[in-house]
Predict the structure.
Amino acid sequence: MARTALVVGASGIVGGATAALLRAQGWTVHGLARRPAGEPGVHPVAADLQDAGATATALAGIDPDAVFITTWLRQDSEAENIRVNSAMVRHLLDGLPKPNRPRHVALVTGLKHYLGPFEAYGKGALPQTPFREEQGRLDVENFYYAQEDEVFAAAARDGFTWSVHRPHTVIGKAVGNAMNMGSTLAVYATLCRETGRAFTFPGSAAQWEGLTDMTDARQLARHLLWAATTPAAADEAFNVVNGDVFRWSWMWGRIADWFGIAAAPFDGVVRPLAEQMAGDAALWREIAAREGLAEPDLDRLASPWHTDADLGRPIEVVTDMSKSRRLGFTAYQPTDDAFADLFAQLREDRLIP
């Protein structure tokens, strides 16, 4: 039976991977973004979710079997994050035609559910790792919780099923994305190779030495599709990671090897990428012009602040996926292969030399 999906944030890392998987599985895919990228096989829906009326107009006539919410807008404070991002979810779900058949809504959030919002990230009393879904919410305001509450309220009103997906740091391709560790590290490694600067781990000793995991966007897309089509997964929240664990003391060398550079020894000093790359915009423009790259704007490829937040955490971060495994999700993605696949794609698309 043909199925129809609405992917919200289709031009982003997660939305792009999800749209690609759904197309490959034979779904009709509508991709909503403020400025749709025009991906082949995706029906573009241009809408600003902050505008309720315009959103409803853009969604008129679209009656999807599944809705995948993979977008958010970063604001200057958590109060504004809550106000803006909860309204975006509300406008989306209010603007959709009421379902005349079973519908599923999947919301992508993340590990800030357990670690706290940007203003209190990794601080205070935190749950024990590995993080498990039953650990629940922290006693702090968080836009992820506000987004969830909008989904829960709309589900109770309109009768659809839902799922919440909490990935760790996502590896995937998107230009102009606000949280993009993979592209950030690719650009940083390229700059180090260009200048002869040391490829220096920017984060904490806890991250260098401790265990961690990550989430390939393709793995997350598989998880989203699984939850949308598996009755046992309805009305549940899930962690979703690749399935392996690693230490950055090992992964840093793997990334350096891919770019043909040496990884600098870690001396325990935090050296944020935001400082290391602060003056590199002009140099990147020179590299882009010389190599014929597709994107000369460093800020559209790299998000050092986000990579610094992840790699600077003072605690080990590992995520439990037992809930999904028990319900039948068995996909696995080695994280070093995820980085290598992304770097190869960035090179093929002329985003790095």
Summary: The first strand starts at residue 4 and ends at 8. Residues 4-167 form a domain with the Rossmann fold fold (CATH 3.40.50.720).
